[in-house]
Amino acid sequence: PLSRYPPLINDISFWLPSETYSQNDFYDLVRTIGGDLIEKVVLLDEFAHPKTKKVSHCYRIIYRHPERTLTQDEVHRIHQAIEESAVRELGVEGRF
């Protein structure tokens, strides 16, 4: 069911590790940490640095609770946990 409460939108961007990286691993990590509060995760941008050849991804994460309005403080704590886990578990270099 769709929620009638407003979404909160936060973006996250990071440099990909030189070894293999899977977008699905990031999507799984976000859903594991955010659970039912994650409505949608979308890859917004992919950028390759012309000199270093490093690749960066920017994702938009849409948070929405089915039964109440979320506060930015609540979402910030979840978003920060996602950032920290992405660095630790996926080996990305944060741009946050």
Automatic annotation (TrEMBL):
<dbReference type="InterPro" id="IPR036690">
    <property type="entry name" value="Fdx_antiC-bd_sf"/>
</dbReference>
<dbReference type="GO" id="GO:0006412">
    <property type="term" value="P:translation"/>
</dbReference>
<dbReference type="InterPro" id="IPR005121">
    <property type="entry name" value="Fdx_antiC-bd"/>
</dbReference>
<protein>
    <recommendedName>
        <fullName>phenylalanine--tRNA ligase</fullName>
        <ecNumber>6.1.1.20</ecNumber>
    </recommendedName>
</protein>
<keyword id="KW-0496">Mitochondrion</keyword>
<keyword id="KW-0030">Aminoacyl-tRNA synthetase</keyword>
<keyword id="KW-0067">ATP-binding</keyword>
<keyword id="KW-0436">Ligase</keyword>
<dbReference type="GO" id="GO:0004826">
    <property type="term" value="F:phenylalanine-tRNA ligase activity"/>
</dbReference>
<dbReference type="GO" id="GO:0005759">
    <property type="term" value="C:mitochondrial matrix"/>
</dbReference>
<keyword id="KW-0547">Nucleotide-binding</keyword>
<keyword id="KW-0809">Transit peptide</keyword>
<dbReference type="GO" id="GO:0005524">
    <property type="term" value="F:ATP binding"/>
</dbReference>
<comment type="similarity">
    <text>Belongs to the class-II aminoacyl-tRNA synthetase family.</text>
</comment>
<dbReference type="Pfam" id="PF03147">
    <property type="entry name" value="FDX-ACB"/>
</dbReference>
<feature type="domain" description="FDX-ACB">
    <location>
        <begin position="3"/>
        <end position="95"/>
    </location>
</feature>
<keyword id="KW-0648">Protein biosynthesis</keyword>
